[in-house]
Amino acid sequence: MKFKVCGLFNDENILRVAELNPDYIGHIFWEKSVRYVSGDTPSINNSKKTGVFYNSNKEYIFKMIEKHNLKCVQLHGDESQDFCKKIYNTGVELIKSFRVDENFDLNLLNEYLDCCDLFLFDSKSELPGGTGKTFDWEILKQYNLKKEFFISGGIGLDSVNLLKNLFKMNLPLYGIDVNSKFEDSNNRKIIKDLKKFKEIIENEI
Fold first, then answer.
1. Which residues, at least 6 apart from 153, have a Cβ–Cβ distance to it below 8 Å?
2. What is residue 16's three-state secondary structure?
3. Burial letters 75-110, b for 16+ CB under 10 A, else e
4. What gap in Å lies between CA 68 and CA 81, rounded to an integer?
5. Contact yes or no for 43/19 (Cβ under 8 A)
6. Whose CA is closest to 72, among 38, 40, 24?
7. What is the mean pLDDT of the chain?
8. Contact at 8 Å (CB) between 118 and 95?
9. Which neighbouring-strand residues pair with 5?
10. What is the 8-class DSSP label of residue 91?
């Protein structure tokens, strides 16, 4: 089970999270986010540095890939299949995110099968990402594709039983993505809570 920590923007906090060796570390390159990365980011050796973009143009994405040495791009907006394919064809790992609620049409996913490596399912809200809300994972019982995915949205230490139930559905669950439920009042990640959660993932799920 892969572990992704998203929404990191403070250098000291990034390096402390990196010491936990998550599989992915996510930086948000969307100016309206409280976790927006405006400057440089430190080098990371053991985690896949991921850039999260929301309806950005491809020139900006390519610039950030080079500037931050991104190994993975997460498209979290309303990007088309053609747009995704242009990023995907560069060879960078691509995660396509979908914001899910009770009205989400799973058939939409078929259009993106050939233009990304992974899906990510997050909770639908007015503002994308970091909402602390969890959508009804029962919707995913209808998921019948082989494409692996991250689960995201409001996941915290109190989500362990939900995650265990999700795992029992025998879905191609690739990893768990966490963000706001592991933050202090300054949107910095709380290291002891992340460490505890990571241990639970490794030992119980």
1. 100, 121, 122, 123, 131, 133, 134, 135
2. helix
3. bbeebeeebbeebbeeebbbbbbbbbeeebeeeebe
4. 25
5. no
6. 24
7. 95
8. yes
9. 25, 178
10. T
Topology given in CATH for the domain delimited by 2-204: TIM Barrel (3.20.20)
User: CA dihedral defined by 40, 43, 49, 54, rounded to 10 degrees?
Assistant: 0
Q: Are 70 and 51 in contact (CB under 8 A)?
A: yes
Under 8 Å between Cβ of 99 and 122: yes
Mean pLDDT on 16-39: 97
199 pLDDT higher than 70: yes
Structural tokens at position 193:
């809570």
Domain ranges, ordered by start, for the chain:
2-204
Give the whole-angstrom CA distance, residue 96 versus residue 147: 11
For 4, list phi and psi in degrees, rounded to 5. Answer: -125, 130
Where residue 57 falls (left for φ over 0; alpha for ψ -120 to 50; beta otherwise) is beta
Q: How many CA atoms lie within 13 A of 172 on its CB side?
A: 11
pLDDT of residue 126: 65
pLDDT of residue 71: 97
